[in-house]
Amino acid sequence: MRPAEKREHFRRRRPYGITASRGCELMSLPCSTFYDAAPVAASPDDVVTRMRAICDEFECYGYRRLGAALRHQGIVVNGKRLRRLMREHDLQPKRRRRPIFKNLTKGLVVARPNRHTGGLDDAPGLIIAPERLAA
Q1: How far apart are CA 78 and CA 38, in angstroms?
Q2: What is the predicted pLDDT for the residue at 127?
């Protein structure tokens, strides 16, 4: 008999007066197995439906965060299976793009530090040498 079958048998037929720990000891079953919730067997279609709902709400979630969200809902899915289902159903996360900033100080000659002259378009914190201002 598998541990899950033993657990269900003991839950259904536990006589009055026998504690859970004593019953587990008699059936040679760890107490953690008795108190552990049985995993939910979900069909692949149900898993994909839930994955789509999560990916619609959080479009940057990868397979690890998606797996954590599914576990939070009570569905345990293997990471390899998650990656395969995401690839097959085109649920790949959007890549986060970092902004590219212009280098405002490129080619500038600094006369002295921690001074600013010029408008807001110039690099803050710099004094631009007079020969650069004439250009």
Answers
A1: 16
A2: 56
